[in-house]
Write a structure and sequence with these properties.
Elements: H1 8-26, H2 30-37, H3 44-59, H4 61-71, H5 81-94, H6 101-114, H7 121-134, H8 148-157, H9 162-169, E1 176-179, H10 186-195, E2 200-201, E3 209-212, E4 229-231, H11 234-243, E5 250-253, H12 260-268, E6 273-278, H13 281-293, E7 303-307, E8 322-328, H14 343-346, H15 349-367, E9 370-380, H16 389-398, E10 402-405, E11 413-414, E12 419-421, E13 431-438
Parallel strand pairs: 5-6, 5-8, 6-7, 8-9
Antiparallel strand pairs: 1-3, 1-4, 2-3, 9-13, 10-13, 11-12, 12-13
Helix pairs in contact: 1-2, 1-3, 1-5, 1-6, 3-5, 4-5, 5-6, 5-7, 6-7
Length: about 450
């Protein structure tokens, strides 16, 4: 896309529109599109604005689309999908982002020209001015862009919490940090934040976590580049708390990318013998980078990184049993829609059965690597019972030497064979945890 020095904000809006067009109308991944689009912007503030616009649109698209439906005399044809994405980006700047209206309007109108749609710039201007003047049309909060089959599963699984799950999943989540205890305690880092003018709170039941009052760029976090702190949701941090391996244990992180949980395990105890697996070699490099930033040598004797299918034991396992296994399994990601809002746009009903088969295959294979008396934590960022408690019950039924270890209420709602956290509870994501012990 050409530079637009006369209207520096126009290029940002045009990039946001093209990203949204790819996600909304061509089934592309938001993460993948942003990875391609953001490097074109040198200023981190511009990159942050593109992300903010895209997330604002994708968290509540029906609310913005209602304005187009009500205010336009006829729907835009498919060939104008890029214009439709730009209009949604413009509306999101006014509400919910509440950017200064004049700047948002002017830059978005200029973005239409930058996208080769000068003949439609007047339409963009008129619609955004109406939104500025009248506000967005009221929308029934019970309506949701989640597909009907997925809403049906949610209503079946969580009838009393259905509305709240949808509402919480449409909100911007707080920013959570995980303090590297190997470089100092949480209280000491909270003081560093305070000295930098960054306010944070510390939950009593999560040892390494801090919740920021306002999101920050990672460059603003003291010691981030040196591994003093990482960005990780509170619920994800609880997975390692659930595993709690003994000092010096032999531990497997079976689906390790991007490496946050592997780093957390080593931060808690650098004497662990840790094997980190991921099926994708490129993603495994992210694990290596994450560990290196935390000060851990991925080539040390205590640490092994392997690119392999965790369920294909012949491809990677040397036969030495593990004391503890963390299986953060592939799942529907329905507990983290507020962080990955395009998940519900791309998910298909057949995915749940397919993912359940993958989860069962991983559980059965990895159980064979566990020493008698050892512990396996099965975790997902799903809120669907088929992937969580139903999966664990089926595993227990076919696995004679598997037992459930109880987890406390800090891990969420008691499901008898595990604990479930729902989106937004205590500010965290939706997550499931089951702690399984091998008899003997």
């Amino acid at each position: 896309m050409p530079a637009d020095d006369g209207h520096p904000g126009a290029r940002v809006r045009a990039i946001a529109a093209r990203t949204l067009d790819a996600v909304l109308h061509r089934g592309r991944s938001l993460k993948a599109e942003l990875a391609t689009a953001l490097p074109a912007l040198a200023d981190p503030r511009d990159r942050a604005l593109v992300e903010a616009i895209c997330f604002a649109v994708l968290r509540q698209p029906l609310r913005l689309e209602a304005a187009l439906t009500e205010w336009m005399p006829r729907p835009l044809p498919p060939r104008d999908s890029e214009l439709r994405a730009l209009l949604l980006a413009g509306l999101a700047q006014l509400d919910p982002l509440r950017l200064p209206a004049h700047a948002a309007l002017d830059a978005t109108v200029q973005a239409a020209r930058l996208l080769g749609r000068a003949h439609q710039a007047g339409l963009v201007n008129a619609l955004l001015r109406r939104a500025q003047r009248d506000g967005l049309p009221a929308v029934d909060p019970r309506h949701s862009h989640w597909p009907s089959w997925l809403r049906g599963l949610l209503r079946k699984d969580w009838p009393e919490r259905y509305d709240d799950i949808l509402a919480q999943s449409a909100l911007e989540p707080p920013m959570w940090l995980r303090v590297n205890r190997a470089q100092g305690g949480r209280e000491a880092y909270a003081q560093r934040l305070a000295e930098a003018g960054i306010a944070a709170s510390a939950p009593a039941d999560l040892t390494d976590a801090l919740r920021l009052d306002e999101p920050q760029a990672v460059a603003a976090l003291p010691g981030f580049a040196q591994g003093a702190v990482s960005v990780q949701d509170a619920s994800a941090q609880r997975a390692v708390e659930a595993l709690a391996p003994a000092p010096g244990a032999r531990v497997l992180d079976a689906c390790a990318a991007p490496g946050g949980k592997s780093a957390h395990l080593l931060e808690r105890d650098a004497t662990l013998h840790l094997t980190a697996l991921d099926v994708d070699a490129a993603r495994l490099q992210r694990v290596r980078a994450t560990l290196a930033r935390g000060g851990f040598d991925a080539d040390s004797e205590r640490l092994q990184l392997r690119a392999a299918d965790a369920a294909d034991l012949d491809a990677w396992w040397d036969g030495a049993p593990f004391d503890a296994v963390l299986l953060d399994a592939p799942c529907s990601a329905t507990g983290i829609v507020r962080r990955q809002p395009d998940v519900v746009l791309h998910r298909r009903e057949s995915d749940i059965a397919a993912l359940s088969l993958v989860q069962a295959r991983l559980l059965d294979a990895l159980w064979r690597t566990l020493a008698p008396g050892g512990v396996l934590v099965y975790a997902t960022c799903s809120i669907l019972k088929a992937e969580n408690e139903d999966q664990v019950r089926a595993f227990l039924a076919r696995t004679a030497d598997a037992r459930i270890d109880a987890l406390g209420p800090a891990f969420g709602h008691d499901r008898e064979v595990g604990r479930q956290r729902l989106p937004g509870e205590d500010g965290g994501d939706g997550f499931f945890y089951a702690r399984l012990r091998r008899a003997g």
